[in-house]
Specification:
heterodimer; A: 7-stranded mixed sheet; B: mainly alpha; 7 helices; elongated
Chain lengths: ~500, ~170
């Protein structure tokens, strides 16, 4: 009988010894979470210690290339794991090390509001324009990234209104604004020389100063010059100014398109004043270094702009390509494959479909997390912004909206690939920096018909594509497609 | 003698295979086992609950080790613990094998079935109760093969006082 006990004991020890460190980590975190429905500082640090001490494969998903633990990944995993175990624990219930901004991390914000005559229509009465800008500047002030704020109007000249502005100054600067005040505050309001304005603003940008430029960005060629030549020249000039700044500075820029009620005179390309009462687009440009822009975007204050924005575009100096987190999904297979080494691939034993509807096709779906990119998430839904190393693959993109699907949790987009030409290869997926389609949709080459009942024209901005293309050419030269995000997927047939 | 050599060779190959690749090639018979479909195989290989990779519990390892340990245990009970002249016939061995197979069927069935019922698996994987039974059947067949190999070896059997001649076919 003693022999039997001994063998049983040996059996039990033998089974307990099978548990991997990652399983023990999972069990430990589950115990912590079930105790008090939260993970406190001590418990979180205990879990971090387990991650740092082990080199097991499961823990590698929490570490970067240098072996540094990414707290965001740990919290995201714990959230997913607890959700899978039916524990109602949110990220707020998990203690996380705080990233408090030190004084050295803060910067000054120079706000430039273009006050050429074409802007009067946005400030008549209380408009969405005034509300949105007032709200945004207020958010800047309280966000913790802003050290101080200087307010200026800009047209042909720079008219500084207030240095180190306080809340009442912001209110005076924008909320109480009327066309008559614009006139009073002066400068030459007759033309919008956008190249000159951008150049002046660019000069103020450095590691301590971010610029916020607000304008309708409508070019004013005037009636003495050829509009097309003028737009081309302005585009080239803007490109040179930005390229010159980029050669010495880690420049990034955000372009936000918003809409507001407009009630006033619109000046078309011939400088003919046209009375308009409709919704019109206007733009906020935020220019700074990559770190500053990244900080502003991370605060999510742009998402809180009153009334929301229409589109957002980020330009960033390409230093190193961002490698997003991704995983190949086992669901939605066309044909069949296996993931013998995990969700990052390689895709093994790949076979084309025999199904009558998809016969001869091979397809797979990849969930990608683009949330770490500075670029707006809509940028990643446009297939035109993607470049595949094998053009025989077709690509469809879907934004992930299903928050209940645990398998997709922590990912922002689904990339669906299909091909008829299945072969052994490493498929390189690049997201390239280029002008998004909304810029072309918002562009007008001729605004003479705006007075007529042309609703589409009223939603467009004269010469906008020349402006954005100029900036884009400086950031992403056409001679060399610049990848802002990239990852590879290896496909093995058998 | 020839049977002994074959058994030792087969066991050595199996042990080597387990040491190199784990239990998955044994259960899947190199991907040829129709009773274990790809999705269940991925779950048993440890595809984790968040569908991120093979970071979860490797059920193949648990079930495989339990199968080996339980087979050794059942063998030891008959040959070295009970070890009586009244329990050394071939039909006694067949009874022990049947119990061992039943136990291993239960073990191999209960783990994936429990995952399936509790939702404790990657939802991208599709497998059914029927597939769990297929895996359980495979495990019980492997238990039979291992038990047969073990009892065909003369070395451990000779250490038994009353069952040293008990095999599947004798006495």
């Amino acid at each position: 009988m003693k022999k039997l006990y001994f063998i049983s004991l040996l059996f039990a020890f033998f089974l307990y010894g099978c548990k991997s460190e990652f399983e023990q980590f999972n069990e430990q975190s589950l115990t912590f979470a079930t105790n008090d429905k939260s993970i406190d500082k001590k418990e979180y640090e205990n879990l971090l210690e387990q991650i740092s001490l082990s080199n097991e494969k499961g823990f590698q998903q929490f570490k970067d290339d240098k072996g540094k633990i990414d707290n965001a990944k740990v919290v995201s995993y714990l959230k997913k794991y607890f959700s899978a175990k039916n524990l109602a624990i949110t990220a707020a219930d998990i203690w996380q090390p705080e990233n408090t901004a030190t004084k050295a991390d803060k910067f000054n914000i120079n706000v430039f509001l273009e006050n050429s005559a074409s802007m009067d229509g946005y400030v008549k009465g209380v408009s969405e324009f005034e509300t949105a800008i007032y709200n945004l500047l207020g958010d800047f002030k309280i966000s913790g990234v802003c050290d101080s704020m200087n307010l200026s109007y800009i047209n042909k000249n720079l008219l500084t209104q207030k240095k180190n502005a306080l809340a009442p100054d912001i209110q005076d600067f924008i909320e109480k604004l009327e066309p008559s005040t614009f006139k009073q505050r002066g400068g030459d309001r007759s033309v919008s020389d956008l190249k000159n304005i951008l150049n002046t603003v660019l000069k103020t940008v450095n590691n301590n100063n971010v610029a916020v430029l607000i304008s309708d960005f409508v070019f004013s060629p005037g009636n003495k010059t050829d509009a097309q030549d003028y737009l081309n020249n302005q585009g080239v000039g803007i490109k040179i100014d930005f390229a010159s700044k980029l050669s010495t500075f880690d420049l990034s820029a955000v372009v936000i398109q918003l809409n507001s009620r407009f009630n006033g005179l619109y000046y078309d390309k011939m400088d003919t004043p046209i009375p308009l009462k409709c919704k019109r687009p206007y733009y906020i440009w935020i220019i700074g270094n990559t770190k500053q822009i990244s900080k502003i975007l991370k605060t999510k204050m742009l998402d809180n702009i009153k009334g929301g924005y229409q589109n957002l575009l980020v330009f960033q100096k390409s230093r190193e390509t961002n490698q997003p987190d991704y995983k190949i999904l086992l669901s939605n297979q066309v044909g069949s494959f296996r993931l013998k080494e995990g969700a990052k691939g390689p895709i093994c034993d790949s076979k084309k479909s025999d199904d009558s509807r998809t016969k001869g096709l091979f397809g797979f779906t990849v969930a990608v997390d683009f949330s770490n990119s500075l670029q707006d998430e809509n940028y990643f839904t446009d297939t035109a912004n993607f470049m595949l190393s094998n053009p025989k693959y077709s690509l469809k993109i879907e934004k992930i909206t299903d928050k209940q699907n645990l398998s997709l949790s922590g990912f922002t987009h689904k990339l669906i690939f299909q091909t008829k030409a299945l072969q052994d290869e490493t498929l390189k997926i690049d997201v390239v920096g280029k002008v998004p389609s909304w810029v072309y949709e918002s562009n007008s080459d001729d605004d003479a018909s705006i007075a007529k009942n042309d609703t589409a024209q009223k939603q467009k901005t004269f010469g906008f594509k020349y402006l954005v293309e100029g900036v884009s050419d400086a950031f992403y030269p056409k001679s060399n497609a610049i990848s802002v995000s990239s990852f590879n997927i290896t496909i093995i047939k058998n | 003698m020839r049977g002994n050599i074959i058994s030792i060779l087969v066991l050595s190959v199996v042990i080597l295979l387990i040491a190199i690749s784990g239990f998955s090639p044994i259960f899947e018979i190199g991907g040829l086992n129709p009773l274990i479909p790809v999705d269940l195989a991925d779950h048993l290989r440890g595809y984790d609950i968040t569908c991120s990779g093979y970071f979860g519990t490797v059920w193949y390892q648990y079930v495989g080790l339990i199968m080996i340990a339980s087979t050794v245990l059942f063998y030891a009970i008959q040959y070295h613990i009970i070890d009586k002249p009244t329990f050394n016939q071939k039909h006694h061995l067949w009874i022990m094998i049947a119990f061992c197979m039943g136990f291993n069927f239960f073990i191999a069935f209960i783990f994936p079935y429990n995952s399936l019922q509790s939702g404790d698996y990657c939802k991208d994987l599709n497998f059914s109760v029927f597939n769990c039974a297929g895996f359980a059947f495979t495990n019980s067949v492997l238990c039979f093969v291992f038990y047969s190999l073990l009892t065909s070896l003369t070395i451990p059997r000779k250490l038994s006082r009353n069952c040293s001649h008990t095999t599947l076919l004798t006495p």
